[in-house]
Specification:
Structural class: mainly beta
Number of strands: 11
Largest sheet: 6 strands, antiparallel
Oligomer: single chain
Helix content: under 10%
Length: about 240
């Protein structure tokens, strides 16, 4: 098993190098974060929490998920939308060099419930890497309103909108293990800086501090052959959000 490292400054969150029967990768690289830097805490729409990849609804299809903007309360969710100034991208390496060979680009226009989404790709990346990202000149493959299932069940199918946050974290225990991330005020600020065996709850009593919060999710299902075309059946997938 071989692992590739990416700097946090590149804002790349990798959830999986596919493990899907028939066309999956044989190595796995995982990562997840919420509010991992002051920049995203001030700009929550830029906060990419997770990227997922798993088998689709039929053989030979794959589902890609990019989640962002965590900690939406139920009240805030009703009017939530994506940032139309940002470029959301899935990046696919199908040659094994840890550089993207294809990208799926997702952009938005408008705000609120009337917001529209455009999905371009998979196409060759206009720019390699996480800097100076450029929207492809390719015609969008799927367009339409958010909060709606768009596209074709045999081609590219898309949903973009709020969903329950699937992440699980016990912040009380997290801040005991990594006290430098502990808040300066509130109940969690009173935790001791050193974790002991007795300070941890039994596993069945662990508390999920993101339960009840939502986030903004981009879900794309498509034929896996659209990602592997011109390369290997083993593919790496990661995501970026950039201005």
């Amino acid at each position: 098993m071989r692992h590739h490292s990416f700097t946090r400054g590149q804002k790349i969150a990798i959830a999986a190098v596919l493990l899907v029967g028939g066309f999956g990768a044989r190595r796995t690289l995982v990562g997840s974060d919420h509010q991992d830097s002051p920049n995203v805490e001030l700009n929550p729409a830029m906060d990419m929490t997770d990227v997922y990849a798993f088998p689709g609804s039929a053989p030979g299809r794959i589902v890609l998920v990019l989640n962002s903007h965590p900690f939406l309360t139920p009240a805030a969710t009703s009017g939530a939308s994506f940032d139309h100034n940002l470029l959301y991208q899935f990046k696919i390496d199908n040659t094994g060099d840890a550089l993207e060979d294809k990208v799926i680009q997702v952009t938005f226009t408008g705000t609120g419930a009337s917001q529209k989404v455009e999905v371009r790709g998979p196409v060759a990346p206009p720019v390699i890497g996480a800097m100076q990202n450029t929207v492809s000149t390719a015609t969008p493959a799927v367009t339409g309103s958010i909060n709606t299932v768009l596209g074709s069940a045999t081609g590219i199918q898309v949903f973009a909108g709020p969903r329950d946050d699937p992440f699980f974290i016990d912040l009380e225990q997290f801040f005991r293990v990594i006290p430098d991330r502990k808040p300066e005020t509130g109940e969690l600020s009173q935790l001791p800086d050193v974790a002991t065996a007795s300070s941890f709850r039994p596993a069945a009593q662990a508390k999920n501090y993101v339960a009840g919060y939502n986030l903004m999710s981009i879900v794309i299902e498509l034929p896996a052959s659209m990602l592997t075309d011109g390369g290997n059946s083993k593919i790496g997938i990661w995501g970026t959000i950039s201005r």
